[in-house]
Amino acid sequence: MTTNRINSNFDSDKLYPPVGSLCTLSHELKNYMTYPVKASFPDDELLAQKLLLKGCEPLPRRCCRPPSPPNYTEPYPIPKSFWSTPPNSSGREKTRWVIKGKTKTDFAIEGVLVMKRHGMIRIGLDIGGGVGTFAVRMMERNITIITTSMNLNGPFNSFIASRGVVPMYISVSERLPFFDSTLDIVHSMHVLSNLIPTTLLHFLFFDIYWVLRPGGVFWLDHFFCVGEELEGVYVPLLESVGFNKVKWVVGKKMDRGLELNQRKYTVLSINICQGMNLNLAQ
What we know:
Blueprint: H1 26-32, H2 45-53, H3 109-113, E1 123-127, H4 133-139, E2 144-148, H5 156-162, E3 166-168, E4 183-189, H6 198-211, E5 212-226, H7 227-241, E6 243-252, E7 262-271
Parallel strand pairs: 1-2, 1-4, 2-3, 4-5
Antiparallel strand pairs: 5-7, 6-7
Helix pairs in contact: 6-7
């Protein structure tokens, strides 16, 4: 496809299909790309998500309109939208990240922000952020967080957006779509665990290092694994990326019983660029 703006220095006189066009799920991808041009298209979210989870990411563009959401209503204005659903008084949402939890692996946001000079954590990313509560808590502190989420068992992206924070519809398999050394903080809770293949997790940790600015904070919140995997696999994996550990707290994961010998740990790490002098109080 030829464009109207030509810049031969960047080969921008032509547009090429994204990587998703080379997807191995050729039948499913063909169905995804069979649509009425310039018209509304029936909801095919399940097909799109299947392609994403199978590595066809990013999906190729389409020249059609999405279906109109049924019974659509306008969202509440900010800040009412933050806690209309779920209400701030409901269960864990009332205290999560606001006060230090009952276990030593539960960190509060204020305990993390105090590590940096006031105002130096401004923008960031929450990987697999569920319903967007972490982003809401940070926005209450004038910090902008983008939340990645899939729509597994629910319309999570739409729900996050309804609260007035920004969702990003990508899986953990995709390269993080941010420029190098730009984010102040990357957070993830529960999603990064031993359920993710080790090689993929290693690439993801490097991705996080790439997008964090020098001195940026990686908050690995409640990572869980089997006991012997901690020192044998995941500690060396994280250390090999080059993070400098600031806080490292390990505890037992009790919700599935002691017999599984599961461990959970919460890590605060600082992104250190080689040859850089960093004062953590700044």
